[in-house]
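Both lines are given unchanged directly below:

***
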Amino acid sequence: MSWLSAENIVAVLTAALGIAASFAVVWYERRVPRRRRIGYRVQMDMPIGGDNHDGQGQENIRLGLFNDLPDMSDASLVLLRVENDGAQSVAVNDYTGGDLHGLTAVFSDRVVRGVTVTQPNADHLMEHFLPSRGMRHSGNTIYLPRVPLDRGEHYKLLVLLTGGSVGCAVRVAGGIQEGAVKPNRSTTVDDKPPLFSRPARLITIVLTLCVMFLASIIVVGDDPLPPIGCATGQLTVNGSTAFAPVVQEIAGRYESDCPGSDITVEARGSNEGIERLMEAGGSGKESPTMIAIHDGIRSQLGPGFRGERVAVSAFAVVVNDEVSVRNLTIEQVRGVYRGDVVNWSQVGGPDLPILLVSRDANSGTRDLFRRRILAGMGEPAFTSQDCEHRNSPQDKVVRCELNSTERVLRNVAGLPGAIGYSELRTAEAVQGLHTVRIDGQEPSIEAIGKSVYPFAEVEYAYTYGEPPADSLTLSFLDYLTRGGGQNAIRDHGDLPCYSPEGFRRCQEES
């Protein structure tokens, strides 16, 4: 049966619950005896004698009768509120005590010296506070008459006490038919009854939860609509291998959110990505369905290229775990890549020859390392095929070139004495190597946000020509820089350029 779905069943049950609740309220009002309750609370308890009662370390300032009357050195004033906060009125004959009075107010460790009834919210209540009706006090106890109280009615007692200290326990006791005397606390302004009764609040909560549950089933059960700006078709994203893991995750999220889209990520290096985009742009297409990710801004590009800042990425110098060095100055790093430092013992490490594991000429990470760390100085010549042995005995250092970040990290982790460079988060996930501080600065997302760590770069997304407004190229570029892709960027330890903390650094690096 087509109507027999989860949301329809819950809708019917919710309606039935609402009808049942309405009948239950009527039955409750007519059949269930409602409890009587008298509540009380202390609204003021303050010292007025010369002795300190409040623990603040200062005596009260006293003038006139407060200073002249005997036995007032430890006096205090208490304002006690007594009220009907139950569901039914309390009549004179509802008090069950055997004596003339109805309630007793006991002030522990203090003596009652005087009491006045004040601020009843019904004038007729005052006629009940007479000695003939049981009103009196003795020692630490006030005996209160059988005062009839309608719902919400109250009276207050201002009590003068001596002995004891401020804060001693105050307790009101007495018997009420089908009810009780309980302490309470003020949750609303005095003299204002609660807006809803307890049964009404309970029923409202239950019905609200049912409606919310129904709404959640409908929302979860329906097929989600694609986000605004989704586009279909095919797109190729190539370029940086360092930023490739981020782009791959973002592409997967976009394809999941936008059915009908097909995004291929091909990471072969920043420079090769630009070259492939240039070739595609020169093939006669107005705007090829291609995006190239480049580590840093690419200069000397033709007028057809458009660059969009994406994120600030942190990079790191990495060494094999058998190298105990944890910090290098920039000058020491430059000495290693000039060939002046060929053994780790020269910079405080073990007696191991240094092996340079580098990226090839297509790498944006290599260009970044040259600009940020080596100050424009080139790396030594290529001298090794396997990153471990020299091609010639005359070669001063061992240096190899590899075409991906993953291969660099794998070789550094496997070769004792090896050193290389990589995108930070990718390096942190590899066993067998560790990052080193540069001039004492730890590579981290916090450091690049504060512009104190030198080995960082803005990732750029380049397109050729103006992508059409409804194209997958423009839609994915917006998703990458400003949309849901920002969460994946943060997850990988980078700063989105369009986030508050990343915007300033991206502007500085542009």
Remarks:
- The radius of gyration is 41 Å.
- The first strand starts at residue 36 and ends at 47.
- The mean pLDDT is 84.
- The chain has 13 helices and 21 strands.
